[in-house]
Amino acid sequence: MTAVLFDFSGTLFRAESAASWLRAVLDETGHTLPEPELAATARALEAAGALPGGAEPVEPPADLAAVWAARDESAALHRAACTGLSRRVPLPDPGLHDALYERHMSPAAWTPYPDAGKVLRALRGRGIGVGVVSNIGWDLRPVFREHGLDAYVDAYVLSYEHGVQKPDPRLFAVACEALDADPRRVLMVGDNRVADGGATALGCRVHFVDHLPAAQRPDALLPVLDLVG
Question: Which domain of life is it from (predicted)?
């Protein structure tokens, strides 16, 4: 293998919990909720699929279905889809829905998986190109910079910047071209078998990891080092 492509959320980084997400925004905006109500509201937001990077809605509301399906094709669609879901849950102030969306884009809302840095550094040491291919509606580069991992990424290919979302093979093709890599010698690593599995259409090999909390997945990325040879 000459290059490895990684998904972002659920692969290299994990989003904070819904409770942490809500609590941070309430603290930042000076709002308070009794702890039982905060916990119940966080559970409702999670059940609605409102936390980007968290569990997706089992079935998006009918009036959001079209936006949800195309949410990663632009920044505007992504914001509309995510805030549309959060607005299903009552909050103390309507402005908190936009504040929640802003919070999820901050580096503080994301934690690298324990082995992410080790694997990225090892790939760099072997001279293997690294790309991040993500279905997303915002610029995740600051997250990598803040956590000290940007130096190990050679290319970022983000769906909203190209108007194409995985599993469309065109997004993976952009990444392979950016790394000057033959897709047949590229490994795609992700947590979504449909979206990330789209890389196989180009001839890429694919390795899947489980989308689990960071503490429950300490070493799932390490096999990548054996797979690249």
Answer: Bacteria
Model confidence, pTM: 0.96
One-letter identity of residue 210: D
Length of the chain: 229
* Euclidean distance between CA atoms 64 and 54, whole angstroms: 18
Residues 89 and 47: their CA atoms lie apart, in Å, by: 10
**Pick from 69, 72, 99, 70: nearest CA to 83:** 99
Q: In the beta sheet, which residues pair with residue 134?
A: 158
Which positions of the chain have pLDDT values less than 70?
A: none
Q: Which amino acid is at 119?
A: V
Residue 184 CB neighbours (<10 A): 12
Classify 14 as helix, strand or coil. strand
Pair of tokens at residue 17: 């919990």
Three-state SS string over 76-132 comes to HHHHHHHHHHHCCCCCCCCCHHHHHHHHHCCHHHEEECCCHHHHHHHHHHCCCEEEE
Q: What is the pLDDT of residue 229?
A: 82
Give CA–CA dist 222/106, Å, rounded.
27
Structure tokens at 195: 């979206």
Give pLDDT tens digits for 55-78: 899 899 999 999 999 999 999 999
Task: Determine what percent of the chain falls in helix, strand and coil, rounding each to the nearest 5.
Answer: 50, 15, 40
